[in-house]
Amino acid sequence: MKKISFLLFLFTSISYSQNEIGSWNIVNFNIKLNSKWNTFFEAQLRSLSFYDQFHYYEYKGGATYLIKKNFSVTTGIGSYNTYSEGGNFELPAKNLETRTWVQINMKNPLEFVTFEHRYRAEQRFTSNGYRNRFRYRLGALVPINNKTIMPKTFYLTAWNEIFFTDNEPFFERNRFFMGCGYEFSKELTVQTGYIYQFDYRINDETGKNFLNLAILYTLDLNKKNKDFTPITTD
After folding, report:
1. Collapsed DSSP state (helix, strand, coil) of residue 16
2. I need a surface site. Which of 56, 87, 192, 230 has the fewest CB within 10 A?
3. Residue 195: how many CA atoms within 13 Å on its side-chain side?
4. Dihedral (C-alpha) 12, 13, 16, 17: value to the nearest 10 degrees?
5. pTM value?
6. pLDDT tens digit at each of 234 positions of the chain
């Protein structure tokens, strides 16, 4: 109960650290099929105010293949939907999108820190036309009360991701996350933290703060399987 109370306290503290902070909620279900393959399903719900003015949701699924230790590839497909500001799923919708992607995941364990590099190429079929986008994310994960991430382990995690397109001005977005999590068991992990997203526009540069809450569930069909999935979601 003390561990749950700590996470709830952190969740509440972050939520009141900004006058206008949105919510970014994730449920991720991961199935480890064998020593090489896993599949995942994920849903997200976001709001522009603290659990109000919901304007975005997505759901997606995909598969990851482990090429060798700490090196894997992922592909997936999903539906991504953005609505107008000012209410809960306010019409008209800004963008209704089907997206596919391929990505490379590389991990670099160093002492007690695990670094992750993620390279992603997205194919975006939007209600405003087709677009390409390219993303790079550098992340780090540090266990607190154990040497590795195992059941009953607290951990700290942070990452920064940049977004590019193949059209001018090329740079589109920067997204930064910092937070912590707790692995209750081999199946269930809860993570919370702070996201700052900066969107670049030629005449209107905008930034937004979010409180992130993620529930991660893993079903391991191969008990000898080693963890090779990315250290954070999305």
Report:
1. coil
2. 87
3. 26
4. -150
5. 0.87
6. 455 555 555 555 554 544 579 999 999 999 999 989 999 999 999 999 999 999 999 999 999 999 998 999 999 999 999 999 889 999 999 999 999 999 999 999 988 899 999 999 999 999 989 999 999 999 999 999 988 888 999 999 999 999 999 988 899 999 999 999 999 998 999 999 999 999 887 444 466 899 999 999 999 988 765 554 555 667
> What's the CA gap between 81 and 145, in Å, rounded?
39
Place of tokens 């909620």: 25
Tokens of 97: 């999108």
51 conformational bin, left if phi > 0, alpha if psi -120 to 50, beta if neither: left
Alpha-carbon distances, residue 218 vs 28, 33, 71, 159 (angstroms): 8, 11, 20, 22
